[in-house]
Backbone:
């Protein structure tokens, strides 16, 4: 599908979606509450079939966080980026690990590094950080570590 | 190395494998629940070699951060560098001279062969055959010598920079590669004689670690591990970068979905890499090896994503720029991290001894997983 067709198809699925263009791929901004339902449709819709979540990450903008999902379709080979803005205080969004199993590990990483709570995640525990880690989330911009050198 | 750490309510034993275990090829810690010999659950615990590379990159300039990426997947360091250079070039719209493009691909493919050689030796050693390791290292050594002569390093080359390559190739470069191809072709049949055709080896691989096509896609498995499950995912074919679209080579696919299929993909892939090298080595174009770039690189405000095919799968660099000299946020989508997430699914219900075959054919490199 071309970008225009993708845009039309996604507007049909979620009229509230806001599009951004100019980048490499078309970007769709969605509200956290709409995300899980849209994700299910993106995966299932026979003409979209976004079955490959190849990158899942988070960006700390100091005032808020942004979840970024890169999606690919192994059948049609079209790509989109989904973004969702989360509050800096107690950020939370529905998990998509029931749709794309790869999200399980990626969401655990974002959970420990950014403190995003993934609602209904089957196994939301620390993955990379040592057990019992408390305090600030390491990937946030205001994280300071007096012992280990992180900023060069 | 393997010790009991507890029991579940059903009486299943929980054991540690690693983090210091020779079969995990690094500091991977697996907590495994077993019932007798049967695996019920595999839980990876990561982070023993986590160096927060993504965080460090936020304070490194676009010329500096490439050097850190060599330390992630140290067996594909050229290809990691390549991805970062391509991503920066995409942001700055730099045209890379064709001489640099060809040299980059030659080095990428040599790296891929070297990585698969190491995997083959180590994998056979995991399954109890010690000899193949020395055979594999004989050929890998020849590649390392080429790298050493041209790049000045054997493992973390840091030779690819935004705009091209760091310096011109060594005068012996082409001859050395031709000698290597000759050596490789005379020795590759030994691999099949020693390991591939071995009935004990085949029995340990066939039907072990089944991963269906749908699951491979859902778990985000890429690279040879996914192509063994018949997923067409070679980035060089699907989203060609550099000059891969002008080269003749086949995407290697197997339909077995088991460890043996993944094994065969890598063995056949080495021959495809040789094919690519043979097309390029004789006519490396003359000209500049680096485009003219400013001393200080500033990416425009925006987002840039570049995916490449490393020896282990799809490697992605995601740069978020605010217009400064350093990235605002950088994310490395490492193939090993996603591939590892499928291990639990693959291993459930199989025997503990088969876990080594599964980890071997996923080709895990731990610094690549932890980053």
Residues:
């Amino acid at each position: 599908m071309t970008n225009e067709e993708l845009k039309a198809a996604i507007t049909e699925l979620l009229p509230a979606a806001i599009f951004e263009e100019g980048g490499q791929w078309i970007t769709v901004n969605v509200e956290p509450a709409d995300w899980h339902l849209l994700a299910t449709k993106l995966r299932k819709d026979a003409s979209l079939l976004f079955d490959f979540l190849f990158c899942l990450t988070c960006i700390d903008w100091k005032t808020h966080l942004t979840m970024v999902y890169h999606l690919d379709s192994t059948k049609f080979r079209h790509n989109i980026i989904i973004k969702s803005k989360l509050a800096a205080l107690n950020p939370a969004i529905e998990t998509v690990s029931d749709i794309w199993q790869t999200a399980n590990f990626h969401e655990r990483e974002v959970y420990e590094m950014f403190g995003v709570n993934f609602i209904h995640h089957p196994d939301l525990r620390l993955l990379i950080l040592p057990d019992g880690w408390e305090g600030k989330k390491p990937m946030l911009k205001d994280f300071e570590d007096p012992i280990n050198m992180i900023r060069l | 190395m393997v010790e009991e750490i507890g029991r579940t309510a059903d009486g299943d034993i929980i054991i540690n494998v690693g983090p210091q275990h020779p079969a995990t090829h690094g500091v991977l810690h697996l907590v495994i629940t077993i019932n007798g010999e049967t695996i019920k659950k595999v839980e990876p615990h990561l982070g023993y070699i986590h160096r927060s590379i993504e965080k460090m990159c936020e304070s490194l300039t676009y010329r500096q951060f490439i050097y850190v990426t060599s330390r992630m997947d140290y067996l594909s360091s050229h290809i990691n560098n390549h991805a970062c250079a391509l991503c920066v070039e995409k942001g700055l719209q730099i045209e890379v001279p064709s001489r640099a493009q060809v040299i980059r691909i030659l080095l990428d493919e040599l790296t891929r062969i070297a990585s698969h050689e190491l995997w083959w030796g180590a994998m056979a050693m995991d399954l109890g055959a010690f000899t193949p390791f020395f055979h594999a290292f004989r050929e890998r050594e020849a590649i390392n010598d080429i790298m050493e002569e041209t790049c000045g390093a054997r493992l973390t080359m840091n030779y690819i920079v935004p705009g091209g390559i760091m310096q011109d190739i060594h005068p012996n470069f082409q001859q050395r590669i031709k000698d290597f191809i000759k050596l490789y072709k005379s020795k590759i049949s030994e691999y099949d004689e020693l390991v591939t055709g071995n009935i004990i080896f085949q029995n340990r691989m066939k039907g072990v670690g089944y991963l269906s096509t749908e699951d491979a896609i859902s778990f985000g498995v890429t690279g040879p591990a996914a192509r063994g499950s018949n997923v067409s995912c070679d980035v060089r074919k699907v989203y060609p970068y550099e000059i891969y679209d002008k080269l003749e080579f086949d995407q290697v696919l197997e339909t077995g979905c088991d460890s043996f299929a993944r094994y065969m993909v890598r063995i056949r892939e080495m021959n495809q890499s040789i094919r690519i090298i043979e097309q390029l080595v004789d006519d490396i174009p003359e000209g500049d090896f680096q485009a003219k770039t400013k001393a200080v690189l500033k990416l425009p405000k925006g987002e840039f994503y570049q995916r490449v095919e490393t020896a282990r799968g799809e490697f992605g660099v995601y740069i978020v720029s605010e217009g400064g000299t350093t990235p605002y946020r950088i994310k490395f989508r490492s193939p090993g991290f996603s591939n590892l997430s499928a291990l639990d699914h693959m291993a459930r219900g199989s025997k503990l001894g088969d876990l080594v075959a599964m980890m071997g054919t996923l080709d895990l490199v731990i610094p690549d997983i932890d980053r």
In short: The first strand of chain A starts at residue 18 and ends at 20.
